[in-house]
Design brief:
This protein has 182 residues and is mostly helical. It has helices at residues 2-18, 21-28, 32-38, 42-54, 66-82, 84-99, 101-128, 138-155, 162-177. It is 77% helix and 0% strand.
Length: 182
């Protein structure tokens, strides 16, 4: 746990390019050999830890209504993306992924698996309750939900308030109910 926290803190402070095993060991209060016993290099260490962190499940709400589930999910995701560490690490890793195919493949795999799970559960619940049309595409729904949040917070780095989340949720809900995501 100390090593994982040290890696995340170092990534947030200096980015992947300047991250070193020595700095992680120093921050974690362990010797470099403790790190090298588990990982043979920086890339392996970062990929395993990022896979673990990115693969953590966002709780998929089941409030009894799709609109409420959507509001809650958007609030959870927006807060996660605004977290001090995440807001520094995500843009850096995305930039690094453009240069490093292993990082790109790992991020795509772990995030897509998680997004598919969220989409299938969220959309499945809503379709079963008759709130969304049969055949609503869970992947498109997740892209509509998460894409604007990611763009706003990680790319353009604009703040999000409750009013924005309400407007975004209404737009997503309208799009999905209209059947344009089937």
């Amino acid at each position: 746990m100390a090593i994982r926290n040290a890696v995340m803190s170092e990534l947030a402070e200096v980015g992947y390019g300047r991250l070193s095993i020595e700095a992680v060991a120093r921050r974690a209060g362990v010797g470099k050999t403790a790190i090298y016993r588990r990982w043979s290099n920086k890339l392996e260490m970062v990929l395993e830890i990022i896979t673990d962190v990115a693969g953590r499940k966002v709780p998929v709400p089941d409030t009894g209504s799709f609109a409420s589930d959507l509001d809650l999910l958007m609030m959870i995701v927006s807060r996660a993306l605004q977290h001090r560490v995440a807001s520094q690490i995500i843009p850096d890793l995305m930039a690094e992924a453009a240069r490093n195919p292993q990082i790109a493949e790992t991020l795509q795999r772990v995030l897509r698996i998680h997004q598919q799970s969220v989409g299938e559960k969220l959309v499945g619940q809503a379709v079963a309750r008759g709130e969304l049309p049969e055949g609503t595409d869970p992947d498109v729904a997740v892209d509509l939900i998460l894409g604007p949040l990611y763009w706003r917070l990680a790319v353009s780095r604009q703040p999000i308030d409750d009013d924005y989340l309400e407007k975004l949720a209404a737009a997503v809900l309208g799009s999905l109910k209209g059947g344009s995501a089937t």
